[in-house]
């Protein structure tokens, strides 16, 4: 019988782990170009508040107009007649009111002298009140007629550019019928992004806008609105206001929008692309700090890598420091691993590492 004089336990086999490599997949937030369209921030359909025949239209398609400038008129003849008629009615009612006021004063005097009855005095007062109401109504009617006459002149409500001219001189239009479409001079860009990208944008953030012709001229825009509902399959609308007027950009133009890479300060003081890792990769130790398991490429063993993290986005979290491009980390099951443990990366066959 042979008796072993000693024995040694074999080391446990490497533990298979899910893993990711930083900077090779979707875990870095890199700048992205998306198509967009320039549009006016203020867009208005202009119409007359009164009806009539269009006498003139001084603005053509594409013309720039100043706030308050007259851009169309209706034939004012019938409205001038209404003003004249209202003026005549008011003048007549005021004359009759003056006569009634004098009569009321006379009846008041006669009554005080006992030469007129109280009934005569009350009749005079009633007549004065009735004619006063008629004069007030005629004065109000004159105001309405004058306003209608003024409404035969269409003025631009703000400075902008004529986007559409919908009728021509000689056309009979009704109140509220569209005559022009006016785009304001302040422009914005509308574009759509997937939810994952939307969650990384914020109001006030800047984007870069360039004509799709690729002539190299760029403009800056600031995000003002972020859609909360998808406007299409996986697409959320984002609106950004252009910081300044650009002669190269106009409403309706197709552009390219360059989204920011959201740089963060790395440990060596340089700006790096924002890094996203699965929530399951981090073992938190505080509100904004914890660690991940980094896989050493030469030994395939684990070492603890302290990290600072920021805002979570879905099932991912932003890592602000502690990781660099090319690092391999465990992406799942971090709580069941230990320092120095040997692992095998799932999906990777046996490899020899130079020593």
Characterization of the model:
The chain is α+β, with helices and mostly antiparallel strands. It folds into four domains: 15-26 and 264-345, conserved putative lor/sdh protein from methanococcus maripaludis s2 fold (Beta Barrel), CATH 2.40.420; 31-41 and 185-258, Efflux pump adaptor protein, beta barrel domain (Elongation Factor Tu (Ef-tu), domain 3); 44-74 and 154-183, Beta Barrel (OB fold (Dihydrolipoamide Acetyltransferase, E2P)); 77-150, Helix Hairpins (Orthogonal Bundle). It contains three helices and 26 strands. A six-stranded antiparallel β-sheet has the order 3-20-24-23-22-21, with no helix packed on it. The chain has a six-stranded antiparallel β-barrel with strand order 4-13-16-15-14-17. Strands 5-12-10-7 form a four-stranded antiparallel β-sheet, with no helix packed on it. Strand 22 and strand 23 form a beta hairpin. Helix 1 runs antiparallel to helix 2 (118-150). The longest helix is centred in the N-terminal third of the chain and has 36 residues, at 77-112. The chain is elongated and about 140 Å long. Residues 1-7, 263-272 and 350-355 have low confidence and may be disordered.
